[in-house]
Structures are given as structure tokens and as C-alpha cells.
Design brief:
The structure is a single chain. The chain is an all-alpha fold. The protein has one domain. It is built from 5 helices and no strands. It starts with a helix and ends in a 5-residue tail after the last helix. The mean pLDDT is about 85.
Length: about 170
Amino acid sequence: MGGIKPIVDGFNQLIYAFHLVAALLVLPGMVVLIGLDVTMRYVTLSPITWAQEATSLLLAVSIMLGLSYAWTRRVHVSMEILYERGGGLFRGIGDVLTCLCGIFLFGMIGWQAWRDIPFMRAFGERTEELGLALWPFRLFLCAICVLLCAQLLFSMIASIRARLVPVGR
């Protein structure tokens, strides 16, 4: 990818770090919290009142942390029947359209999340049980959307270059 290779490599390292945080901290934390809540509910008849809210927030964070990694590993949902049977040009067009649609989707999600932050701060929007401010989660969603859009843009450039530059160069 020439001049953007160091940038892409940096993005990939950040994405892998996010994946590790989700896999080694967030998901096990959810398992422990759910286990404690179930144990407390059935053994002492007093569940942890904020456990469901906390696990919901942790689930959203783990999904956000895993989106870029799924794209990097190419484990996202695709139409394999059509994609595998199509030729090089068909795959190239499919890759570019997938990237454009992803940029549009995550761009809109990030933009709306960014627009929501001032209102959330002005009205002091918080979770019900934990009382956590919700705007930092929106800000995190914005950052992940920016990362995804950049990653999709780099993938689109790589796909276009792969189709334009003959093999062997």
C-alpha cells in the first residue's frame, strides 16, 4: 500500500489491542458478573440490582471493540455463494461496494452519536441503576466508527489498487 502502510499497520495494532481488551477483560467480566448475579439471586434471594445494566453496557462495549477486528480477519457476514463464484472484477466491485456501504453506515452511526452527545450532557442522561453518564459511551462509539471508516477506506484503496496494478509489479 505504499505510503499508507505504516498507518494501516498502526491501525491494525490498535485493533488487535481492542480485540484483546474485549476478549480478555470485558467478556470474562461479564461472565463473572452474571455468575455472581445468578448465585446471589438463587442462594441469598437478593440479586445484584445493577448487574443486568452493567452486562448490557459491557456487551455493547465488547461489540464495539470487536467490529474492527472482525473486518481485519474477514469474518464479517458476506454472500459467499455469489462472491466465491464471481470473477476478479466482480469481487473487486463487491469489495468496493461493501467498503462504501460500511463507510456510509458507520459514518451515519458515528455522526448521530456525535450529535447526541451535547444533548446527553445537557440533560445529564445516565443509566438507571448505576447512574453512569451515557455520553462517554457515545463518544467511544464515535471513535470506533471513525476507526472503522478509516479501516474501510484503506481496504477500499487496497482493493482498487489490487485491481488496477497488474500482478507481478
